[in-house]
Known about the structure:
By secondary structure, the chain is mostly helical. It has a single domain, classed as Up-down Bundle (Rhomboid-like fold), CATH 1.20.1540. It has 14 helices and two strands; from the N terminus they run αααααααααββααααα. Residues about 220-255 and about 265-278 have low confidence and may be disordered.
Amino acid sequence: MQRRSRGINTGLILLFSQICHVGINNIPPVTLATLALNIWFFLNPLKPLIYSCLSVEKCYQQKDWQRLLLSPLHHADDWHLYFNMASMLWKGVHLERRLGSRRFAYVISTFSLLTGVVYLLLQFAVAEFMDEPDYRKSCAVGFSGVLFALKVLNNHYFPGGFVNVLGFPVPNKFACWAELVAIHFFSPGTSFAGHLAGILVGLMYTQGPLKKILEACAGHSGYQDHYPYGRPGSYEAPRNYDMYTAGLSEEEQLERALRASLRDRDEAANAVLTNTEF
């Protein structure tokens, strides 16, 4: 694993700038807590990266299972942190508003653990079937696997529209696969298996049994949804989702989502004032 640079953390400064630009009060609580937790572990890592990264050799063969918990919360450098958390900021605003804070917290926690498990299975399978033992030693850190899983969820709950991948318009439902290939070819140092694991976990939720399993576990634990912006069924989603996705960057989509969120808050506040007048 590469060491973090000891100079000015430009990526961290840009991340704080983006958070301030959005406004802390405009960021839902679970999303904000996730950002804060990742920033905290970047500034105060529990262990050096070599002892927190995830690999088959360290986690499975040497039984160092705590790496499943540590690896998503540690980043190689400030730019790694910035790109992941900037993406988390955008996805969190969308999905936490759609799912509710408690349910979103449940999803984030499960995805953080499950992407690591799927990553280990993928690396183990490649090492075994291709007779490439180096894949057992390949070590990965970062939140990007969880982000790919959240991207699948975002495309599921907000279908339609296109995204720009390397200058080419790609339908939303194929965007995660296009980005997986693009990142692999243009940033070969990134973890292909980690990103693929995130996509597979996202599909397990949207197309497989994971969603029902989580809902069943949540029911047994007495878990109830909390919706800071009202229940998902209580507001009418726009029929044309292109207004959120078509040709827009993540920052532009974030700004539109925030404006919609603030507008809903203002309408709710006005309704309360109207109902309390004598």
